[in-house]
Amino acid sequence: MKTGHVLIALAAALLLAGCAAREGDGGEVHDYGVFLSYEGSLSALNAYNNIVIDAQYYSREDIAEFRKNGHTVYSYLNVGSLESFRDYWSEYEELALGAYEHWDEEVWMDVSSPRWQAFLLDTLAQELREKGVDGFFVDNCDVYYFYPDSGIFDGLSTILRALRADGTPVIINGGDAFLDAWCERGGAAPDVASGVNQESVFTAIDWD
Question: Where do the H-state alpha helices sit in 150-198?
């Protein structure tokens, strides 16, 4: 997770509605907001119909209370890299492919590893599903851009298809190199994603 990016500039695509604002009973209401380092009360996000949070830091009760008012909750799920602040860091850091430029607390992960895939799908995603989230916001499919080999492609394909298998909404954050390759090989986009989020559409990062 890119800590410090509270609200990401985005361009939604595929089946995901855009981020145009409209007027609601309580003032301006937004369709979509991404809050990656937010750990406050979900009630403070009532102005957003669809939100992305890191549901690891919220209880099932928190999410249920927010959803009962008609909100949709996507949970952050980092499939392509591993952050050092996660409680499972020491168990999986050996599967790292290399350093993640500009993000000292992260490493790129070998998504072709059956052990990493099993953890993501059978443990992490399952725990998030049990909290009642509506779908997943999948990050760092860009691992294929930096490591464009068949193993990484197949690994991402396995993970994303499994997440989508029961129709669960999956928003891919970036990952254009993977999605291009998937479609060029005859894959149907809805089999791996129901939407695409793109950072730095209207803004840019000054790394200096």
Answer: 150-164, 176-184
| pTM, 2 dp | 0.84
Residue of 65, 18, 21 lying closest to 44 (CA atoms): 65
Question: Rounded CA gap, 136 and 160, in Å?
Answer: 10
Please state, in angstroms and rounded to a whole number, the distance separating the CA atoms of residues 130 and 60: 7
**How far is the C-alpha of 162 from the C-alpha of 32, rounded, in Å?**
25
Measured distance between the N- and C-terminal CA atoms of the chain, rounded to whole angstroms: 20
Q: In the chain, helix, strand, coil percent, each to 5?
A: 35, 25, 40
pLDDT digits (tens, 9 = 90+) for 122-176: 999 999 999 999 999 999 999 999 999 999 999 999 999 999 999 999 999 989 9
> Using the 8-state DSSP alphabet, how is residue 88 labeled?
T
Question: Would you say residue 18 has pLDDT above 80?
Answer: no
Q: Residue 50 in 3-state DSSP? A: strand
The burial class, CB within 10 Å (0-12 / 13-18 / 19+), for 162 is middle
CA distances from 131 to 64, 74, 135 (A): 8, 11, 11
Largest Cα–Cα distance of the chain, in whole Å?
Answer: 51
